[in-house]
């Protein structure tokens, strides 16, 4: 068999794989692309459309987290507060989150006066609903997440097989691989749209797809960490606890969170990022503080944990600890969500992620149109001579 025939045979089978994987995952890819577009500018749309989130900076002392928690508890009784988040220019958020029974609320409180601005059930929030679809297809997580992540894995294979099919045979053919012939018939425009734009977005969407797989498959997350760390094992996040063994009469020390919080405020009074404080809900819980200098991303947050009874800092080994102690592999894992939504590159990154997701959502549609067109050509009867 000649090399040319071998090459044709190879591309033929790549084409068949591309076709069938596209047909299997197409609807899911389209769905993920559309919902990804919606979520690209989630924060910007929320701040614009939900004015209660915004609160002008005032020349008054801030109320401590324990006091804001007590105020929020009265507005939302019989729920356990998860955290209190401060951010200059924004209303403080007291977050209530629990798995069993499941609930997710945010109480927006004026951190200067203690006024409850809004109690919001996040399960009714538009973006929350879209996120649950994007992550779980509105199914139980153990069912929906594997389905969508598997579709993402198939899409990654589609991207590489598409590159093989796109690859020009010679220099003359390469000129047609980089531009869309807009003045041609619609079938040719559709073909170029699928191939040319598919080529360009591959170099962007591959990061979005792989970061989605990190969130969806534990084995993949561990593999990425293993490779990027040079063979180390990813330490899973674990809850940290205060020491209750020294004194059996220890009581819940809510004021300890206020002391920790005040030390942060006093040390950096002009801080412009976000400060997240977890007020302990029982005697065993630790005080977690997350200080993030850039509220538009997550990876730069500095996570610290303290014993509520002694105020002694608790060291952790997982990636969500002190930023200065984070290795390259740790930072890659921290950056994963910011890479996924494009926030890692600021507003330009979000715009690029939006456009890439939009084009990715169109790929199954243009691909099916190409497939239908080819089938029609095969079935068209040959012309007969009289």
Keywords:
alpha+beta; 386 residues; single chain; elongated; 8-stranded antiparallel beta sheet
List the helices and strands and how they pair.
Elements: H1 3-40, H2 42-49, H3 65-75, E1 81-86, E2 92-98, E3 103-109, E4 116-121, H4 126-136, H5 141-166, H6 171-174, H7 186-216, H8 218-228, H9 254-267, E5 274-278, E6 287-292, E7 302-306, E8 313-314, H10 328-341, H11 346-379
Antiparallel strand pairs: 1-2, 1-5, 2-3, 3-4, 5-6, 6-7, 7-8
Helix pairs in contact: 1-4, 1-5, 1-11, 5-7, 7-8, 7-10, 7-11, 8-10
Structural class: alpha+beta
> Total number of β-strand segments?
8
Q: How much helicity do the residues have?
A: 40-55%
What is the chain-wise order of helices and strands?
A: HHHEEEEHHHHHHEEEEHH
Identify the strand order in the major beta sheet. Answer: 4-3-2-1-5-6-7-8
Total number of helices: 11
The span between the termini is: 40 Å
Largest sheet: 8 strands, antiparallel
Strand content: 5-15%
Radius of gyration: 26 Å
Gross morphology is elongated
Mean pLDDT: 90
- Identify low-pLDDT runs: none
What do you see in this structure?
It contains 11 helices and 8 strands. It has 386 residues and is of the alpha+beta class. It has an 8-stranded antiparallel β-sheet with strand order 4-3-2-1-5-6-7-8, with helices on one face. α5 crosses α7, α7 crosses α8 and α7 packs across α11. The model has no long low-confidence stretch (mean pLDDT 90).
Short characterization:
The chain has helices spanning 3-40, 42-49, 65-75, 126-136, 141-166, 171-174, 186-216, 218-228, 254-267, 328-341, 346-379, and strands at residues 81-86, 92-98, 103-109, 116-121, 274-278, 287-292, 302-306, 313-314. It is of the alpha+beta class and 386 residues long.
């Amino acid at each position: 068999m000649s090399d040319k025939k071998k090459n044709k045979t190879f591309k033929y089978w790549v084409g068949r794989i591309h076709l069938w994987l596209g047909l299997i995952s197409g609807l899911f890819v389209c769905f993920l692309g559309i919902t990804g577009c919606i979520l690209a500018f989630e924060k910007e749309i929320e701040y614009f459309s939900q004015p209660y989130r915004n609160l002008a900076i005032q020349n008054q002392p801030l109320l401590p987290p324990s006091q804001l928690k007590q105020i929020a508890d009265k507005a939302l009784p019989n729920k356990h507060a998860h955290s209190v988040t401060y951010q200059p220019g924004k209303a403080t958020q007291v977050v209530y989150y629990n798995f069993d029974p499941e609930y997710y609320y945010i109480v927006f409180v004026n951190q200067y006066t203690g006024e409850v601005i809004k109690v919001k059930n996040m399960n009714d929030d538009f973006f929350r609903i879209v996120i649950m679809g994007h992550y779980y297809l509105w199914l139980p997580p153990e069912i929906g997440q594997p389905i969508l992540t598997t579709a993402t894995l198939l899409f990654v294979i589609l991207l590489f097989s598409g590159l093989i099919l796109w690859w020009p045979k010679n220099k003359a053919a390469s000129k047609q691989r980089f531009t869309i012939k807009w003045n041609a018939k619609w079938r040719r425009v559709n073909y170029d749209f699928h191939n040319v734009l598919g080529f360009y977005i591959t170099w962007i969407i591959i990061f979005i797809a792989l970061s989605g797989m990190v969130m969806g498959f534990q084995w993949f997350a561990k593999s990425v960490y293993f490779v990027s760390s040079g063979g180390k094992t990813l330490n899973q996040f674990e809850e940290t606890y205060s020491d209750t063994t020294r004194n059996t009469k220890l009581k819940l020390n809510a004021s300890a969170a206020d002391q920790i919080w005040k030390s942060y405020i006093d040390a950096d009074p002009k801080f412009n990022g976000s400060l997240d404080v977890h007020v302990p809900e029982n005697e065993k819980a630790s005080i977690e503080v997350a200080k993030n200098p850039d509220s538009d991303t997550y990876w730069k947050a500095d996570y610290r944990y303290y014993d509520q009874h002694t105020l002694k800092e608790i060291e952790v080994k997982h990636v969500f600890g002190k930023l200065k102690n984070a290795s390259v592999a740790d930072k890659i894992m921290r950056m994963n969500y910011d890479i996924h939504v494009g926030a890692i590159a600021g507003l330009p990154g979000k715009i690029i992620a939006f456009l890439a997701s939009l084009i990715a959502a169109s790929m199954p549609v243009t691909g099916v149109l190409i497939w239908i067109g080819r089938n029609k050509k095969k079935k068209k009867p040959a012309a007969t001579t009289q």
